[in-house]
Amino acid sequence: MAGRTVEFHTVRRTAGLLEVQLEKKDGTPAKGVVVIEGSDEAPHHAASTDAEGRVRFRDLRAIEHRVRGYLSQGGAPRISSAEMSDAELLKCRKTVFMQKARVTVGKTTEVTLREREVGYVRGRIKLPPGGKPSDYAVSSPGRDAAPARVVYDRDTSEFVYGPVAAGEVEIYLQHLAATPRVIYQKCPVTAAAGKVVRTVLDPAAWEKTSKERLSWKWMAVNPNRSS
């Protein structure tokens, strides 16, 4: 109507809620701490679970979050050296792996973090004639693989990767003298729960497929061997 001011009524949109259940391997509730990793889009959050292993995070941004759980009783050890013995690695064979959870505006997203039995991968690089361990680097897929990590010994070419869940995992092998240096190959290895699997990566089997990309074969030595 002429002469009347038009009014707009906005609807207040709230953030979402994330409810996390922390469990032991057998599915029973576990006490511990749940962490939501911070990022450029959202801050870091952490909270202890209640007696039933639950924790709620309110007013989270409606994006995908990385959620981690840590049981009060502890978990698989963090690799500190490639010289760690199999017995040290397998002292505790269980851990909780990171999960991604997408929070929706005005809704409750539920996530269950359950402890899983883990294993490790131990290996070395088969150096070509004249090759040095420092010519290479071995790494993991990054944040999505946590708590797994690779420790590579640049003096011996030996490495340890874990803790990882049973099944196929990937190890990244990089030749630092290659051009460009960012080229690496994903080397698949089959991990086993409660075991340390051995593998050997063979750079001599590299096959150049283009000027920008290299690929190579890998070979496993006695992959079912464990301590």
Which fold name is given in CATH as the topology of the largest domain?
Answer: Immunoglobulin-like
Give the count of helical stretches: 1
- The total count of strands amounts to 17
Structural class, by secondary structure, is mainly beta
CATH C-level class of the largest domain: Mainly Beta
Overall description:
The protein has 227 residues and is mostly beta strands. The protein is built from 1 helix and 17 strands. The strands form 5 sheets. Strands 6, 9, 11, 12 and 15 form a 5-stranded mixed β-sheet that branches. A 4-stranded antiparallel β-sheet has the order 3-2-5-7, with no helix packed on it. The chain has a 3-stranded mixed β-sheet with strand order 4-1-8, with no helix packed on it. A hairpin with a 5-residue loop joins strand 11 and strand 12. The relative contact order is 0.16.
Put the structure in a nutshell.
This protein has 227 residues and is mainly beta. Helices cover 2% and strands 44% of the residues. The chain contains one helix and 17 strands.
